[in-house]
Specification:
By secondary structure, the protein is α+β, with helices and mostly antiparallel strands. It has one domain: Gcn5-related N-acetyltransferase (GNAT) (Aminopeptidase). It is about 30% helix and about 20% strand. Strands 1-2-3-4-5 form a five-stranded mixed beta sheet. It is globular and about 50 Å long.
Length: about 160
């Protein structure tokens, strides 16, 4: 397995993975997510792939087939008199192909996460951050198992 920047040739595979992750989110929060859609269009994905501030990394097998992705965004702490200035690498989305259960627990997610951590360090970031939807227990457990901790909690009151 190799981790590299996503390329135009990867868009079809990434779109398939975006569909998978959307269905998980739609099952957890059908009040927010629309089944049968994706987070990005092909056009948006093309723009994102070419944006160095929003790097997309893919894990590929020996045949260069996409096994998973990590969408990232370089962020800087906005100026505030009460907070230290720092850079973060935000993981906007991380997903691993799940055509069948044998493709889970093969180290693809961990390899992507480790790669993002190394990239953040290379960029001089203070931290790597991400959001996880409540109810996505497998993702929460995965991130905890890989050393991430809760930084803050976003709460809601549905009207």
């Amino acid at each position: 397995m190799q981790i590299r920047r996503a390329q135009f040739k990867d868009i079809t595979a990434i779109m398939k993975l975006l569909s998978q992750v959307l269905e998980i989110h739609a099952s957890i929060r059908p009040d927010i997510f629309i089944p049968g859609t994706t987070k990005y269009t092909v056009e948006e994905l093309t723009t994102i792939i070419n944006d160095d501030q929003k790097a997309v990394f893919v894990a590929v097998d020996e045949d260069d087939q996409v096994l998973g992705y990590a969408f990232t965004q370089l962020q800087e702490q906005p100026f505030s008199t009460n907070m230290v200035q720092f850079k973060s690498l935000f993981i906007d989305d991380l997903w691993v192909l799940w055509a069948d259960s044998t493709q889970r627990s093969q180290g693809v997610g961990r390899a992507l996460l480790d790669y993002v951590k190394a990239e953040a360090k290379r960029l001089g970031c203070y931290e790597v951050t991400l959001n996880v939807w409540e109810g996505n227990d497998s993702a929460i457990n995965f991130y905890k198992k890989n050393g991430l901790t809760v930084k803050e909690t976003n709460m809601e009151f549905i009207l």
